[in-house]
Inverse folding.
């Protein structure tokens, strides 16, 4: 019985690795980077929503820089920023009013919204719906298809050029949502910030470009742009992974999304391990919640093509599958290491060497993607960081066990990521 179970684990580990290798190889040549995002003359209303909770340390740096960039978007775009205070207990709301008063007379229209307990602090999705209701009630210049809502977190920064290209992507493509790439401010702050930068601008961008080929990108929350029509049709849910949930709900109502790799929103990296683990546990639990709520709906939906169904289903199954896969990989390594000291040492060494070589090749593809999306970094530096990311992923690989425990026990506190750990002027190149 033990031998049979061990063999099953070995087969599972090998099969998963081969499928992963095949997926990366195929989509390395099939993914779509070139998206037409040239801004023409069509007028648009743009509303950037920034949900805020105890952000007194970031208001005057990130938000003020974001407003300055909005002032310089293409002249065919009417820029607005919606600052949503979610019942902060610090000086966030006071600072917002100070910021608003100091910005009178500028091109960008600034709107300060304030939520109150007990209705506030119910998660990011609830705050975004509050802002959506406000926008829908405004006397706007454009219709719902030409009114674009952008989601940028309190630590986020996008250039005027990037925001203009996002609107250009709507203008040139029949889509309801555009997701930008995500990078880290001060990516060289420490090892964790470097790993998160390559995680987002390398691995995540690679997968999103692959989804462009399938016909549907996935929202990443920060840097998420959508038409007012889609926002009103879909609205945000209460999942801990509200961006993915929004994507699925939109797909079920035939709203298509694309990924724009040339536009990047820069955010603050989580620079300490404990807050990073808390953040990822929340994301993983949110994915598990979406598995329970939406997997069946995705599979049976007549509006989702087969490639997208497979991609979304794998995304939702992965946290659960990885819990078994971790045991399979550990068992495989231990058994093969034991075999090294037997007469079968040479075949084991050959197998290990092949696995290592192909693993490094997979991360070489990630390094090349990262190199294309960054500045002031050599290809060798990108490659070395990509290979380090293997160990970073090993650290994060045990998160699903905690997330599953939280899901089963009903613990779903929306633990917000603290900003202001690595405060600096937004610059993704430092």
């Amino acid at each position: 019985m033990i031998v049979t179970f061990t063999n099953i684990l070995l087969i599972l580990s090998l099969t998963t690795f081969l499928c992963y290798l095949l997926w990366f190889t195929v989509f390395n040549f099939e993914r779509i980077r070139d998206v037409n995002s040239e801004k023409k003359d069509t007028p648009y209303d743009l509303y950037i929503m920034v949900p805020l909770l105890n952000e007194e340390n970031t208001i005057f740096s990130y938000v003020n820089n974001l407003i300055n960039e909005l002032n310089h978007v293409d002249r065919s775009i009417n820029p607005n920023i919606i600052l949503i205070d979610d019942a902060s207990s610090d000086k966030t709301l006071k600072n917002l009013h100070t910021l608003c008063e100091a910005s009178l007379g500028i091109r960008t229209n600034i709107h300060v919204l304030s939520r109150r307990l007990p209705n506030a602090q119910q998660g990011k999705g609830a705050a975004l719906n509050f802002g959506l209701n406000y926008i829908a009630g405004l006397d706007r210049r454009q219709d719902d298809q030409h009114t674009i809502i952008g989601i940028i977190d309190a630590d986020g920064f996008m250039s005027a050029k990037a925001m203009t290209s996002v609107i250009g992507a709507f203008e040139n493509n029949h889509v309801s949502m555009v997701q930008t790439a995500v990078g880290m401010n001060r990516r060289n702050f420490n090892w964790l910030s470097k790993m998160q930068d390559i995680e987002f601008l390398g691995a995540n961008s690679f997968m999103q470009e692959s989804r462009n080929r399938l016909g549907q990108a996935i929202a990443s929350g920060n840097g998420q742009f959508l038409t007012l029509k889609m926002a009103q049709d879909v609205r945000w849910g209460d999942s801990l992974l509200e961006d993915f949930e929004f994507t699925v709900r939109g797909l079920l109502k035939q709203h298509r999304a694309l990924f724009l790799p040339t536009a990047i929103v820069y955010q603050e990296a989580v620079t300490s391990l404990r807050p990073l683990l808390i953040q990822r546990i929340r994301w993983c639990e949110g994915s598990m919640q979406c598995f329970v709520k939406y997997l069946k709906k995705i599979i049976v939906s007549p509006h989702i093509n087969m490639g997208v169904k497979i991609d979304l289903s794998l995304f939702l199954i992965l946290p659960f599958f990885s819990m078994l896969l971790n045991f399979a990989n550990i068992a495989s390594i231990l058994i093969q290491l034991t075999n090294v000291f037997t007469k079968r040492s040479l075949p084991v060494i050959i197998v290990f060497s092949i696995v290592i070589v192909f693993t490094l090749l997979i991360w070489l593809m990630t390094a090349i993607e990262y190199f294309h999306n960054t500045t002031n970094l050599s290809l060798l530096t990108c490659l070395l960081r990509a290979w380090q990311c293997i160990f970073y992923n090993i650290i994060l690989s045990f998160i699903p066990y905690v997330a599953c425990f939280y899901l089963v026990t009903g613990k779903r506190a929306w633990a917000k990521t603290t900003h202001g750990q690595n405060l600096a002027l937004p610059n993704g190149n430092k």
